[in-house]
Design a protein that fits this description.
heterodimer, A: alpha+beta, six-stranded antiparallel beta barrel, 8 helices, B: mainly alpha, 76% helix, globular
């Protein structure tokens, strides 16, 4: 038993030594001898395992490619989702560039950094400060119109109050200069549920107070700063008239305005230096008013042209009806008066021939009618004669 | 070891070898588990040292057939590991799961060291980094995978008596 165990142990060692020697031989084999051995192994023992490995790698590459496709799709979807935002931003920057080219000098471009707190609804942080030349009480405008006024200036940033601030006041006027008033924030009281929908849904509304009673403005009319008061120069769009609202002030009208600038969408603004504001901004937003008025003029002109052509057409139709009626009356008169009427007929031969034909036809009709009446009388007399028994 | 245990061991080794050629390419980790080493451990602790040496030699030579630059190195390493594990089984109580994990770590690390030294693909600091970082990491992953496999297969497996 012990001898068998010793033999087994020696056999294990011998086998182990043989395996090690064979491994070492395999390591030192020249390439021309090594390759046939490896190839034989690959084609026999390892072949099914290699096929499995190939399949697994194909699965992995398919998974990776599907992941790449999904990633690409997500990237495209993300890019597509960003397009509207970029378009809006692009449009806004273009407008700002257009405003800059019109203002020409004395402005400082800035980013409007909006706070998310409720207390910051009335103010906006601007990314330009005194280092960039911003001064207190400088005017803040956007391509759409008036934004507010710089209140506090730091070296690298500044704070501006929006038109929604309770202290905000600006002297304003209608586009044609017929109505003047003071624009201030519209402070809503407790909701009664009876007010119009826009009063319940929209924030940042403005009021134009103190408009003379004789001056009326229609909804949609643009209101500009009037330049009275010295802070806000003339010609900056402030808002658009929504409706007239009733106030206790019976001596003047009050209009509700929708601001030209939506503070929630405010991203890029311009801070006008006091010198630039003092120089006036009449021609900067004038195009807006000009386009507005031009549009209205075109519409009005179109309306008047249409009215004019319609009235002309109606007049022509009325004249033709009148002349036809007159001709018919003349022909009837001629028919009854015999030859005398022919002297009244117009010299136009075609018309005269037509009228003659008409009168001949009328005469025929009258003759036929007379004959039929006479025949009816004869029938009546004959019926009375042939049916005496029926007589009552 | 009776015939039933022999068949179970062969089947489990076959499954582990299949996993080596299917799961490893799917995962494609830089430091991945070596299921051939785990299969060799499972078999070595159940057979005589000479048989374990032959198993290691065959498995190593098969894997070497795909890596011609180190042809024979894998066979040498596997032979050493298989024989050593089978001999150590007589010394240690190899049914302990953590001890098996430690043996797996040592075996895989030794295999990686032998392969790195024989292949001579890296030198100096890079070789040191490969042996100390990536080889040890791969050995650790193999040990973890082996321990998990042993815990799952414990009811099925049956080790030979010491």
């Amino acid at each position: 038993m012990a001898r068998t165990a010793r033999f087994s142990a020696r056999l294990d060692v011998v086998i182990f030594a043989a395996c090690v020697i064979l491994s070492l031989i395999a390591m030192v084999l020249p390439a021309n001898l090594r390759e046939p051995v490896a190839s034989a192994l690959r084609r026999s023992l390892v072949a099914p395992l290699i096929r499995l490995q190939r399949g697994a790698e194909q699965w992995r590459s398919a998974y990776l490619s599907s992941e790449r496709v999904e990633l690409r799709r997500d990237t495209l979807a993300l890019a597509a989702a960003r397009v509207p935002t970029l378009e809006i931003e692009n449009d806004r920057l273009r407008k700002l560039l257009g405003l800059g080219s019109k203002v020409q000098w004395g402005f400082i471009p800035a980013e409007a950094l909006q706070g998310r707190g409720r207390a910051e609804d009335f103010t906006v942080t601007l990314s330009a400060g005194s280092n960039a030349g911003v001064k207190e009480r400088s005017l803040v405008v956007a391509p759409e119109g008036l934004v507010g006024l710089v209140q506090t200036v730091d070296p690298t940033m500044s704070l501006a109050i929006l038109f929604a601030h309770p202290d905000f006041r600006v002297s304003a006027m209608s586009a044609d200069g017929s109505a003047f008033g003071i624009v201030q924030p519209h402070v809503t009281t407790t909701s009664t549920g009876n007010e119009p929908a826009f009063l319940r849904s929209e924030r940042y509304l403005l009021e134009m107070r103190g408009v003379p009673f004789r001056a009326t403005m229609k909804p949609g009319a643009v209101v500009y700063s009037s330049g009275l008061g010295g802070i806000y120069p003339k010609g900056i769009p402030v808002g658009v008239v929504l409706a007239e609202i009733k106030t206790p002030e019976s001596w003047a009208r009050t209009y509700l305005l929708r601001p030209s600038v939506n503070p929630a969408e405010l991203t890029s603004v311009m801070i006008l230096t006091p010198e630039r504001a003092a120089a006036g901004l009449i021609n900067v937003w004038a195009d807006v008013g000009a386009v507005d008025s031009a549009t209205k003029s075109i519409v009005a002109a179109g309306d008047s042209l249409a009215r004019q052509s319609a009235s002309k057409e109606a007049a022509a139709r009325r004249a033709s009806i009148d002349s036809a009626a007159r001709l018919l009356a003349d022909s009837l008169t001629r028919d009854t008066t015999g030859r005398a009427a022919e002297r009244v007929l117009p010299t136009d031969s075609a018309t005269a021939a037509r009228i003659r034909a008409d009168s001949a036809a009328a005469a025929r009709i009258r003759r036929v009618r007379r004959d039929s009446i006479a025949a009816a009388r004869v029938r009546d007399s004959l019926r009375r004669d042939t049916t005496p028994g029926v007589r009552p | 070891m009776n015939w039933g245990a022999t068949v179970r061991t062969i089947l489990l080794c076959a499954i582990l070898i299949l996993l080596h050629y299917t799961l490893r390419p799917l995962l494609a980790w830089r430091a991945s588990a070596d299921f051939l080493i785990i299969a060799l451990l499972l078999a070595s602790v159940r057979v005589r040292p000479g048989v374990a040496a032959i198993l290691g030699f065959i498995i190593g030579l098969a894997s070497d057939s795909l890596a011609l630059s180190a042809f024979g190195a894998g066979a040498l390493a596997m032979t050493l590991i298989g024989f050593a594990w089978s001999r150590l089984k007589a010394v240690f109580f190899a049914d302990h799961v953590l001890l098996n994990g430690f043996f797996l770590f040592l075996g895989k690390w030794a295999y990686e060291i032998v392969m790195n030294l024989v292949e001579r693909r890296t030198h100096g600091a890079e070789l040191l980094m490969q042996i100390l970082v990536w080889s040890s990491l791969s050995a650790a992953v193999t040990a973890v995978a082996g321990v998990v496999a042993l815990m799952l297969l414990r009811p099925v497996l049956e080790t030979r008596g010491t």
